[in-house]
Write a structure and sequence with these properties.
2 domains; 6-stranded parallel β-sheet; 12 helices; 16% strand; 42% helix; Ribosomal Protein S8, Chain: A, domain 1; Rossmann fold; 3-stranded antiparallel β-sheet; single chain; alpha/beta; 318 residues
Length: 318
């Protein structure tokens, strides 16, 4: 096979994104495909066997496309591009989501693209999968976008107040102060998307509301985007109750990891039960994320795969 270098012409911005700070991104590509990546100017040069060059070129082009669209390229994006180049995957039809101060939020994996499409097409969407796959962040981004466009009047976030194997004791303060520690991932996402000041103003105006699942009982949630996070810790009765809160002009995203149930009796979890009952019904979408969708620290993907393998050895299904 020919080992002659192949030159891939790129914009200056794309070259910087492919190289990365201190050539970190370039090193990841080189290690993944066994190629030499150089930046002689006007693009990148790839040296290696034909198959390795071809895969590396796909990764480089995916990274460049993201940079040319004006998105920040971080290490997680590079690892996703590498994984997709290896498997031949991609994000066909993946459209960026315009929202808040971030400008746009773009899906990084095919499953993320399908999830955003489901949020657009369905009134009720379940996002199932391990930590770090973006299921909560994308739901928050989509809901915040609807709020900013005036498509809904309120964004309501809810979560079961179940302790993850710890005894937190009595929490002082009003309802928001008691619940906020449980809602930290959602507030972090909203702050990232909207900014702290806009988030504060909209909370004060009642446009963004936090409520534990128990406080939704008896309410009809109209013209709202509702996010039920960590739903694997909702009981079957709680899940039925919250799903039937949907009112006129509302949508709901239910997110959770069926392998991380913190209830005393895991069999009481309402998430898998609800999906089993409702999947395939009109207006309901289900997206399942896997280890390949993890966009956090690269160790997280390997941790998820190790636990999945252990579950498979034990004959467990989730």
């Amino acid at each position: 096979m020919s080992r002659a270098p192949e030159f891939v012409p790129l914009s200056d911005e794309a070259v910087r994104a492919v190289a990365g700070a201190n050539s970190r991104h370039a090193a990841l590509i080189e290690d993944a495909f066994g190629v030499l990546l150089e930046t002689p100017g006007g693009g990148v040069s790839l040296s290696g066997d034909a198959k390795s060059r071809g895969q590396a070129k796909k990764a480089v082009q995916a990274i460049a496309a993201r940079a040319d669209q004006g998105f920040e390229v971080v290490e997680a994006d590079v690892r996703v591009a590498i994984g997709q180049a290896r498997t031949g995957g991609g994000t066909p039809g993946a459209q960026p989501l315009p929202v808040g101060r971030r400008g746009q939020v773009a899906p990084k994996t095919p499953n993320q693209a399908r999830y955003l499409q489901a949020l657009a097409d369905c009134e009720l969407v379940f996002g199932l999968g391990p930590a770090g796959t973006g299921k909560t962040f994308l739901a928050v981004a989509y809901g915040a976008g609807m709020l900013l466009r005036g498509a809904v009047d309120r964004l309501i976030v809810s979560r079961p107040a179940v302790e993850a194997g710890e005894r937190l004791g009595f929490l002082p303060g009003d309802m928001n102060e008691k619940v906020d520690p449980y809602m930290a991932p959602v507030w972090e996402a909203l702050t990232d998307i909207l900014g702290a000041e806009q988030l504060r103003r909209r909370r004060e105006k009642g446009e963004i509301e936090v409520a534990p699942i128990a406080f939704l009982r008896g309410r009809t949630l109209s013209h709202a985007f509702v996010i039920v996070d960590e739903a694997q810790n909702a009981s079957r009765a709680q899940m039925k109750m919250v799903l039937t809160r949907l009112g006129e002009g509302s949508r709901m995203a239910v997110t959770g990891d069926p392998t991380q149930i913190d209830l005393p009796n895991p069999g009481d979890s309402g998430l898998a039960h609800a999906v089993g009952l409702l999947e395939g019904e009109k207006g309901i979408g289900v997206t399942r994320f896997g280890a390949e969708d993890v966009v956090r620290h690269p160790l997280v993907e390997r941790i998820v795969r190790a636990y999945d393998a252990d579950a498979a050895r034990r004959g467990r299904t989730v």
